[in-house]
Write a sequence for this structure.
């Protein structure tokens, strides 16, 4: 089994270039099915979730070509089936987007329930609510979701989401893109990758307005034509490197970012004592590694992202004083890593939705296990700050979302490698 071996204590210095956003890519690539033709997507991260998704798309008939510069061409002229391989679909979370795109283009879809990081129950009732509002019949079991046109056919509609959901917002946007009439999504999520999906679809000929606000309007179009689009940089990958430098100490230029997307994260790191300098498409962070405690509450964008909860928690474990970290999106997410951090000497008490983190001067190396993607990223940061050697198991979780992590970290001076045992 492969594991990371990390020798902590070396400050991080140099520059790192951020890859395309995972959670944008996993929506934009299946959205190519909406195009009866060819498109080119640039800045696609080379991560395992993307590789699985491209395999699913090829299997459905999409002609996929990857290029060394990170771009991918997808030709969806001929789609052989509306039933993607259940074995592949179960390997990742974002395969639920196949429901929306297949419904929109073919009026039907037969998709197994998705897999992915299991840090919570992660229901898809809001996606289903959207499909039903658009006129779909939904046959749902514990194994699959089958969609077909209802009595009155498929058409635009008003959907008011009961919870702010990134996945449901994107899925309904995609489902509505080729349907007649106008769809309005109220209480929509506002994450940067939602704007990115809308920009991609509009570039291909869709008519979507309001993405980035809580009301999104989709006026259905008959067809999309091809085009070229570049995915935005990954907010969470960038945040992970920034948190690592804050906790470990050092001086790093994080390149290919949109500083505006990073404000919810950089403002907290500044509060904790790191120095942040914003450039047009880069952020420089310097830190002595001596941080002070803070309070963080995760919220949908523009709040502090749940996907940075575990990484900021590591900063808190080595900060001076008592920090409070409240999770408002996925309550059970603490269980993916807090026990592992405790094994490294962290003092974390969990009280319902809040972790109370009392800082210690330094963590100690230990053998720990990643239980999901961001938990794995946090354990790596913990290992980089710790005295001694840390081993992190289950590295496949990390590989789902971080492109060339070892290469990027070692270029910054981190002592981290993959070992086979
Ligand atoms: N929710 C429902 N019903 C639904 C959908 C969501 O109750 O139908 C609830 C969830 O249980 C959760 C909240 O709404 O409490 C928000 O969930 P959301 O739908 O926004 O999450 P998601 O779309 O399944 C995406 C990212 C996650 C990220 C969340 C929140 C992808 C593929 N995944 O998940 O990313 O944590 O949004 O920002 O885009 C990660 O990258 O590590 C990751 C887990």
């Amino acid at each position: 089994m492969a594991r990371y071996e990390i020798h902590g204590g070396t400050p991080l210095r140099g520059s790192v270039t951020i890859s395309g956003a995972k959670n944008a890519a996993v929506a934009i690539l299946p959205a190519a099915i909406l195009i009866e033709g060819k498109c080119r997507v640039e800045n696609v991260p080379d991560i395992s979730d993307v590789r699985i998704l491209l395999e699913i798309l090829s299997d459905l008939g999409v002609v996929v070509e990857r290029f060394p510069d990170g771009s991918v061409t997808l030709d969806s002229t001929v789609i052989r089936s509306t039933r993607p391989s259940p074995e592949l679909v179960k390997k990742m979370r974002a395969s639920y987007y196949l429901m929306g795109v297949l419904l929109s283009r073919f009026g039907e879809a037969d998709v197994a329930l998705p897999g992915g990081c299991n840090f919570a129950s992660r229901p898809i009732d809001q996606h289903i609510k959207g499909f039903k509002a658009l006129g779909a019949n939904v046959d749902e079991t514990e194994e699959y979701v089958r969609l077909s046109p209802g009595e009155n056919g498929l058409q635009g509609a008003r959907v008011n989401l009961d919870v702010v959901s990134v996945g449901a917002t994107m899925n309904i946007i995609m489902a509505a893109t080729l349907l007649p009439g106008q769809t309005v999504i109220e209480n929509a999520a506002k994450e940067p990758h939602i704007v990115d999906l809308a920009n991609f679809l509009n570039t291909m000929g869709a008519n979507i307005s309001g993405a980035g606000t809580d009301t999104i309007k989709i006026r259905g179009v008959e067809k999309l034509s091809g085009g070229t689009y570049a995915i935005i940089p990954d907010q969470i990958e960038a945040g992970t490197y920034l948190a690592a430098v804050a906790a470990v100490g050092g001086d790093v230029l994080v390149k290919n970012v949109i500083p505006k997307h990073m404000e919810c994260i950089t403002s907290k790191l500044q509060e904790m004592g790191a120095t942040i300098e914003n450039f047009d498409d880069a952020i420089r962070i310097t830190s002595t590694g001596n941080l002070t405690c803070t309070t963080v509450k995760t919220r949908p964008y523009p709040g502090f992202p749940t996907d940075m909860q575990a990484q900021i928690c590591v900063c808190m474990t080595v900060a001076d004083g008592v920090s409070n970290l409240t999770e408002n999106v996925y309550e059970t997410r603490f269980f993916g890593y807090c026990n592992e951090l405790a094994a490294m000497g962290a003092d974390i008490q969990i009280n319902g939705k809040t972790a109370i983190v009392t800082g210690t001067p330094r963590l100690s190396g230990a053998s720990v296990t990643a239980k999901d993607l961001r938990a794995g990223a946090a354990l790596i940061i913990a290992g980089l700050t710790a005295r001694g050697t840390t081993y992190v198991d289950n590295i496949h979780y990390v590989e789902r979302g971080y492109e060339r992590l070892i290469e990027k970290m070692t270029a910054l001076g981190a002592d981290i490698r993959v070992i086979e045992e």
